[in-house]
Amino acid sequence: MIRALLARLGELLFVAFGVSVLTFLMIRLVPGDAAQVMLGASDTSPEKLAVLRHQLGLDQPLVAQYGDWIWRVLHGDFGTSAWTGMPVIDEIGGRVGVTVELTVLGLLVAVVLAIPAGCLMAAMRSSASDYAVRILSIAGVTVPSFWLGSLLLYGAGTFAPGVPLIGWVPFADAPLANLQRIILPVAAIALPVVATLARVVRAAMVEALGQDYVRTARAKGIGEALVVFRHALRNALIPFTTSLGIMAGYLFGGSVVIEQVFALPGLGRLMVGAIVERNYPLIQAAILLATAVFVVVNFVVDLVYVAIDPRARAA
Amino acid sequence: MKRNPLLLLGAALVALQALAALLAPALAPHDPNAQNILARFSGPTAAYLLGTDQFGRDTFSRALYGYRTLFAISAASVAFALTLGGGIGVLAAWRGGWFDRVAMRMMDVLFAFPIILLAIGVIAVLGPGAVSAAIAIGVVYTPIFARQLRAPTLLLRDTEYVAAARSIGAGDVRILLRHVVPNLAPIILVQASLSLSTAILVEASLSFLGLGTQPPTASLGRMLAESRNFLQLSPWPAVFSGAAILLAALGFNLLGDGLQDTLDPRLRARP
Predict the structure, then answer these.
(1) Across the A/B interface, how many CB contacts are shorter than 8 Å?
(2) pLDDT tens figures, A223-246
(3) Looking at chain B from residue 175 to 204, which residues have their Cβ under 8 Å from any Cβ of chain A?
(4) Cystine design at A88: which of A78, A157, A292, B46 (Cβ 3.0–4.6 Å)?
(5) 46-75 of B, contacting A, C-beta below 8 A
């Protein structure tokens, strides 16, 4: 048990290091000179260029640059935004709440809906409607969330014109107004994840229901409800749990895109703006922070997996 | 094969849309970029099968050309990921030892980034555009192909026919190309199809954000982004461009799913 945990912790540290190196290299990989690209082709003043190169740390040897950069990052200094002069971390801090709320609510909705939906699909297996259900669930997986969001927006404008369903109100200011406005974007990003997770639950339930221990439980005369929920579902939830980390990353990506549809002031819109403005320090910090969060989330998911599946402890 | 209607449906969807993309110049009734201000925001009519957008451009013709862009970028990115990632996975399994460990740990690092963030990072470096989008999506799928192909290669490495090939003096390159890769074909086919399905969604997302194909080239994601501001005036371009993206991703997903059921003998017996 302890050895498995230490091994996973070692992997976590290596991946975190690799992610930091790759994110660090981002600015250095820009074709040509990142500082010149940021200034634009028209600005050829060598003084400005030298100042910006120094600010970005481009005037030092690579290893020294990385050491200097990671030291500051670990102390919470991600540099200053190239255009506003504000610390990058403050700009991100002002926007990240929207994206986190979308991601967390999306995951909550997905988990609550996917488990019963998957069980239902497993129960309907090999019935006449099975193919229809499977096509629908695959269509759910492949529906573009930004399209669904646009359609929901259109539907809301057409059928409920008076209801304030768009815009952004911080949760702290008015919780109900906040939740009312976040229903549609959450629905748009959650549907593909509900469909994906429901398929995971279905496959795991179909497999679990065919296992010997289920037959044994039935043979002992245990009621069908208890067999399904106590014996089959508990085992079927293992693959479900392990896919939650990836789904959280997927929802985060979905919210980056959906913010554009609903004009929500989140991280996604900040990053897209930053790419257009070539604001490299901002993009770099956003990618590093978000990826670090998901590395940790996946580590926690791994721990949960070890905790709920005795077979994983031996590995 | 013949008892799998989902596979047939997927194959039909893919074939139909690929044909539409290939034959776009012949099938499109209008120039995809021709503007007709008099026919702005038209609903479906005989002249404009799927209506027109805010510039009076024909939605049907733009969707056909949009398929070309979508398929070209998605296919290029999956080919990139298959070559680079698949190559790394196969070689890692074949060589083993430190090469295996270092290569696969590097794949773990790439895999740690959320998909859209990694793609956005690559595009931030290369600048927005069609080629950047293809490379970005290719990088995203590289670790997936590496992981998917490494495990089966490990099994193939220890098979008797590989040992037999080696015993008659065949070199690594010959064994890999003649005996290992052909046996990986079913896995490659399934993974490529499933990856194409999601690569299509990522490409459409990037275009939607304005980071992929740049105007005036017709692109389904961009069509949706441009037309959604006029939803109340005319929902048609937004509805149809999104539906086209959905059908493209759905076709490849059904195809990959069906191929998996058909090609994987362990699943064949299952209901």
Answers:
(1) 148
(2) 877 888 878 888 888 888 888 888
(3) 197, 201, 204
(4) A78
(5) none
